[in-house]
Amino acid sequence: MNWVALRMLTGDRAKYLGIIFGVAFAALLMGQQLSIFCGLMRNTTSQIRDIEGADIWVMDQNVQFVDDVKPMSENELLRVRGVEGVSWAVRLYKGIGRARLDDGNFQQMILIGLDDATLVGAPRPDRIVHGELGDLRQPNAVFVDEFGWRYLFGKEPFQPGKTLEMNDKRAVIVGMCKCNPTFQTFPILYCTYSQAVQFLPQERKTLTFILAKGNDDLPKEQVCKAIEDQTGLRAQTNDQFFWTTIQYYMQRTGIPINFGITVMLGFVVGCAIAGQTFYLFTLENLKQWGALKAMGVSNLRLVGMILLQAVIVALIGYGLGIGGAALFGFVFQRAMTSTPPAFYFGWQILVGTAAAVVVISLAASLLSMRRVLFLEAGVVFR
Amino acid sequence: MTATVSAPPMAAIQFRGLSKFFGTAETKVTALDNIELALPYGEMVLLVGPSGCGKTTLISIAAGLLNPSEGEVVVLGQNLTKMGANRKVRFRGENIGFVFQQYNLLPALSAVENACVPLLIAGWNRAKAIAKAAEILTAVGLGNRLKAFPSQLSGGQQQRVAIARALVHEPRLLVCDEPTAALDAASGRTVMQLIKQVAVQPDRAVVVVTHDSRVYDFGDKIVSMADGRVVEVLGKGQRPHE
Amino acid sequence: MLTRYILPLLGLIAFAFAVQQMTQAQQKTPPAVPPVEPAKSPFAKQLAGSGIIEPETENISIGTNLPGIVERVNVKVGDMVRPGVPLFRLDDRQLNAELVVRKAFLENAQATLEKLNNAPRPEELPPLRAKVAEMVANLDDQTKQLTRLQRLGAAASEDELTRREAGVAVAKAQLERAKADLALQEAGSWKFDRLVSQSAVKQAQAQVEQTGIELTRLTVKAPQLKWDATNSASDATEYKVLQVNVRPGEFVGTVQGQALIVLGYIGKLHVRVDIDENDIGRFRPNLPGFAQPRGNPHVKFPISFVRVEPYVIPKKSLTGLNTERVDTRVLQVIYRIESADLALYVGQQMEVFLNAAEGK
């Protein structure tokens, strides 16, 4: 009988394609919007992901997210080093600096100052496109990120030695590295900590973060706890800080609501198209369903047949839609070169969209099923 | 398949004091009023009467699609009124063949595929079911249109496919609802001839609901109904008063 | 065909693409290793501080007593100098000129005294004596004239007699005066005048000496060692010149804290460790530990406790900025570096780790 159900489904090609298109469209819309949303949210944490090499971020206890800069006293670094379980700790400056370009314009920059001695947090070698990490130790040297270079100099090919002016000091670009796209879209400059301090207007405190590494045999969370207990600072693992930041943006900005609405719209439109087409399809075949019922097909069997149709439609539609979303991201990420794209295609997208498609198909099939199950078999005689 | 059912001389269908009401107390409509009727095996029984006289309700009850309000119905020796819903569905699938006025063929399936559906319901393997259906279709004269889809067939041909479908699983009761109503006179006659020729067997009861007077000649017995009551039961060749 | 095979196949391909894209996006790079592994502490309970290398004597910042222009610098950076050796000299022309003036004053005073000591002048006495003789003669003459007149008796007029008597009286007085003049001259200078003159000489002498001392103060010398018992220095110790901030021709003042030349005795290097005030509770004297130079975590220097600076001072942040900022206060603890390896330099920053689990 499943065979009959399938033949019924595919019998009318136009309707069949219509249903699949509806599901695929809903899946595409939701998958793509969710991906952009996740990408945007993820971009807020790009620096957390870019600054590697350490496990733990230590910051002022009032810091709410990664761009919320609340500098600490230099001494906190030493205090963190004294915490049991901390293998090492180094300083990190992360903030916004203002650069004057050759043409006289000003541009905000994300400034990352790495510990002079160790350069902890520097881009790993495979992310460095031009230059050597050691070049950062040259006077006034900075690394710029790929998008930042295009942002500042357009299509010009990279050449070391370009200068910027920051806080009346000269900054010489000696290298270029790849960075994850940022939320603020400002160019990123890497330099040493002592250099970063000079690129900034005088401030009383400059130590924005401390990067620490726990002993390998201890759980990171325990080390964080120890740091918090002993120093009164806030310590989070990379993952915790990642989610803290995302949570901040989720709670404090309108982004989730706006995207939520779009995703909901996708869901509703998908429901409407797929659900209605499927429902109408069932309705049109009502006489046939009735005949089958009269011929001795049990209700259970009927439900099975309708569910099978829904599953097939959902599977194909979902595959096409999610594939379309992936293709969109694929093209989008390659087409955008001057500005960092916000697109993250994680497994959560696949699962979330799948869940929505399941709900859509289930809703459509339940609606149809109701009509078929409560169908008086006798109607076929009229 | 029908081993449990006792063979004639018992009547194939026996209605005892059968009544059917629709609606509640105030708007109560009596569709069938105390029907006492026995239909034998091996004959084609025509159920005739004006629209709304209750003939469709009567065969719906006989086919187990409706439950009677009062009285009993025994079909092929089984008391349907005492049968559970699931058993009734199975009983229907195994023992009753249907021919509908609008054919009700599945448009997505070819003629032979349509004809094999009851076998599939019974759980046959598809290849065997199709082979069997092809045999029956050949028997009803559509051996050359096996792969045709309903939309490619004429009304008469479609009804023939429907008859093939109704008989493919060799049911012991064939219920036909206005089989000729949508057909022209010639096709109607062909269809009735076919039913008479193929369906009427000694151990099988055939009930045809019709008000097409052109086909009265085919009936071995004509049950005339009006207002939910059996008016008269006529023998072969006789015609109801109208 | 399309509906039964191609569409599901398309769906499958699309889904596979999506999964492939997903795994690509999902890819997690293995954790990165820092370019230089930061200094690690092996201690379970540790106390960390930053430190600065200093000589055993601490840094001796040489200053000057007097402001002035530097004329000559006798040492250069890296020289070994013994205590008392001149380091630099200021311009002394003004003081030399003053010395000449002061010496002239002294001579003047001395001459005045000499003159007083040698009074009376011998040539002044004879005229005075002659004057006395003259007055004696004059008295004698007057007396004789009076006597003659008196002898005349009444012949002599009353008037004439009175005049002659007055003449005698005048002559007597004139003789007395001449005698007194002679006596004054013969007595010489007055004792008190001589005393005044003697003290004037002493004053002038003292002024000359003062200028002389000031002239020596223009030359700044290496200070004398003044060791406490814990020191490893002997008499043969020499300072090392760590820094020279003065060059001939420069003006130097007597501003406090201005280090013109920095000296230090480098027997053993010390490291001055800053311990945050919040961590003072966890610090105890005699904690063992080690120090690592910044940027070179592969080198460890064992250190041993020397002393605690009992006064908690405002911390100077060690960012290298010219405007050092004060934020919190730190306890400074001095440790000795127990290593003969002199790959360390005075003023170098160190990461110091103390084992807080040990030490009583």
TrEMBL record, chain A:
The answer, when asked if Transmembrane helix is one of the entry's keywords, is yes
Keywords for this entry? Answer: Cell membrane, Membrane, Transmembrane, Transmembrane helix, Transport
Q: How does this protein lie in the membrane? A: Multi-pass membrane protein
Q: Which residues cross the membrane?
A: 16-40, 257-282, 302-332, 344-367
Query: Where in or outside the cell is it found?
Result: Cell membrane
GO CC, one annotated term: plasma membrane
For this protein, the record's Pfam families field holds: FtsX, MacB_PCD
Q: Which residues form the MacB-like periplasmic core domain?
A: 17-227
State the InterPro entries in the record: ABC-4/HrtB_transporter (IPR051125), ABC3_permease_C (IPR003838), MacB_PCD (IPR025857)
The reply on keyword Secreted is: no
Superkingdom is Bacteria
Q: Where is the ABC3 transporter permease C-terminal domain?
A: 265-375
Q: What is this protein called?
A: ABC transporter permease
- From which organism does this entry originate? Limnoglobus roseus
UniProtKB/TrEMBL annotation, chain B:
Keyword match ATP-binding: yes
> MF terms per GO, please?
ATP binding; ATP hydrolysis activity; transmembrane transporter activity
Name listed for the protein in its UniProt record = ABC transporter ATP-binding protein
Start and end residues of each ABC transporter domain: 13-242
Q: Which protein family is it in?
A: Belongs to the ABC transporter superfamily. Macrolide exporter (TC 3.A.1.122) family.
Q: Which Pfam families match?
A: ABC_tran
Q: Which terms in the GO cellular component ontology are assigned? A: membrane protein complex; plasma membrane
Q: Which organism is it from?
A: Limnoglobus roseus
- Keywords for this protein: ATP-binding, Nucleotide-binding, Transport
Question: What are the boundaries of the signal sequence?
Answer: none
Q: Please verify whether the record's keywords include Nucleotide-binding.
A: yes
UniProtKB/TrEMBL annotation, chain C:
Per its record, how is this protein called by name?
A: Multidrug transporter
One GO location term (cellular component) = cell envelope
Question: Where in the cell?
Answer: Cell envelope
- SUPFAM superfamilies the UniProt entry points to: HlyD-like secretion proteins
Q: Which Gene3D superfamilies match?
A: 2.40.30.170, 2.40.50.100
Signal peptide span: 1-18
Major location category of this protein: other
Keywords carried by this UniProt record: Coiled coil, Signal
